[in-house]
Model the fold of this input.
Amino acid sequence: MTELIDILLSASFWAAILRIASPLIFATMGELICERAGVLNLGIEGIMVFGAFAGWVTVYAGGPLWLGVAVAFGAGALFGALHGLLTIPFGLSQHVVGLGITMLATAAAYYAYRLALPEVTNPPRITPFQPLHIPVLSDIPWFGQALFSQTALTWAGFAVTGLTALILYRTPLGLALRAAGENPQAVEAQGLSVTALRMGAVIVGSGLMAVGGAFLTMSAFSSFFFEMVNGRGWICIALVVFGAWKPGKALLGALLFAGFDALQIRLQQTGLGQIVPYQVFLMIPYLLSILALIAMSRRAEVPAALMTPFNRGDR
Done:
């Protein structure tokens, strides 16, 4: 118990929560935008993998870090455009297309990696984003290390969350996007294109998913290796449900999962870790997240037109 209290009170623990949550925040906001417009994007896992590779290889080839972020966003947007084209105007199954996008994007990343670096056994490293030093704030005892020792991409993730909430709830565009996921017939009656709104949402949302993947290679690990996304995409889909399709609650869900993950890593290093198999600790964040998801999802209101194809003129 003493060791647990020490962990919870340590500044490094809270700094790790923000760092672990950052890729989840980007990808969760991307998935939330898609689903708010009525499209379930199960391509998120593969898009994150390709975004991780695209951002990393851009920087490895000599490009600046922010160019790597832009390239990752563009790559994700392309996969989003393919997903949207197949599911929105053509009306194909969103489940089947999403899983197909995941397999396609993942395989494309692996193939491109082997094509670019055929003889490499150890993943090359890049110089990643460095923690920002914020005058005065970074020098505050405990709080400076816990909250203000993050990279620019982490702060960008929080900014994206705020911007997503602002657009969805404070702009006509956000109202139209939410209506496209709730009552597309009403959107059409206003003379707006449901197809264009949903396509735009999937493209932008997929770009954010890819940036979430790029965070792993450009801010967390500094290199690309297989299985690095490790199921984070599927977690983000659950976080959207946990957050009841609201950006603020989804952000809290990402921080909660990151807290569980950071805790299990540190518990393995305590005396308990010498007794309990490490697989039990790896299971903890997923088990607790499932329990939290069950508790929250019972009160969640699913967008009424989610996964429902829309054809112009339907009533």
Summary: The mean pLDDT is 90. Residues 194-220 form the longest helix (27 residues). The chain is about 70% helix and 0% strand. The radius of gyration is 20 Å.
